[in-house]
Amino acid sequence: MATQRQVEVFSAGCAVCEDVVALVKRVACTSCDIVVHDMHDIKAAARAKTLGVRSVPAVAIDGQLAGCCAGRGVDEAVLRVAGLGQAR
C-alpha cells in the first residue's frame, strides 16, 4: 500500500487561493492527503512560517514548500514535478 503524500495548501480565502485549492484537488491522486490551511488561523500562520511561506496561495508537498511557491505564484507543472498527483 502506498504511503500518503501530505499536501498542504495555505490560503487566505481569496479568489486566487480558491483557484489553487481547486487545482490541487483536481490534480491530486488518491494517495494525496490534502489539508487547506486558513492563514487567518494563528496555527496555520505559524506552520506557514516554518515552511518559509512568504505569500499566499502557497503549496507544500511532504513538508517542502513547492519551488513555484518560494517566490510568487503557483505553477501546476512545478507541483507535478514535486510529486502532486503521483502515488509514492
TrEMBL record:
Transmembrane segments: none annotated. It comes from Thiomonas arsenitoxydans (strain DSM 22701 / CIP 110005 / 3As). It comes from the Bacteria. This is Thioredoxin/glutaredoxin. Residues 6-65 form the Thioredoxin-like fold domain. The lineage of its organism: Bacteria, Pseudomonadati, Pseudomonadota, Betaproteobacteria, Burkholderiales.
